[in-house]
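#struct-help
A.M.: can someone run this one for me? Single chain, 233 residues.
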Amino acid sequence: MLKIDVITIFPNIFDNFTNFGVIKEGINKKLCELNIYNLREFTEDKHKKVDDRPYGGGAGMVFMVQPMDSAVRHIKEKNDVLKINLQKTILMTPSGDKLNQNTLKYLSKMENLILICGRYEGVDERIKELAVDMEISIGDFILTGGEIPAMVLIDGVIRLLEGVVGKEESLKNESFENDLLDYPQYTRPELYKGLKVPDVLLSGNHSKIKKWREEKSVEITAKKRPDLFDKNH
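D.P.: on it. Structure tokens below:
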């Protein structure tokens, strides 16, 4: 079972996160476990202070190293993962490596993921040296905190766990598999406001349908995401 532990100063953001979709499915099937930790519970300061002004001056506040380090150590001791290579501590940060499907696949093979949700001007650099294995971003933009990026990562990982998604075939034929975007999908009715479902999809000829879908995936990827297309084509 995959254990996912999240460190945040706003734990209530995750209150309804487990009640829907693949997250609920994975937890109910006991394929994963999601634990939310309040960073303020790990501070040594009586006022539960977790941030301070940056040395050298500058705007904003920075997360202090001690609460973060203590939180990560507590989680690691509690989980006691025997194989250290199956446990990853991840800092969600705009300066991290951009999240992609291959990274999600890699993380879905872990036994424990510890996600640190940054905020303000970031975290003390020393926490990266002491505890962080990976730094991940969900895109070239700035959000107010790492909680939403953490949710994106969690959703992407859990849906890859064996037994979560009903038809595993759907995972093999979706966007970003083989560095291609997904082919167009249609359902009933066959005709709507003059727009018709392609004849090949109504033919019942599975080899022709497969070929059409492959061609459309290549065509769409070359048009919309040439950066993906250029990797292997």
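A.M.: thanks! The mean pLDDT is 93.
D.P.: also worth noting: The chain has nine helices and nine strands.
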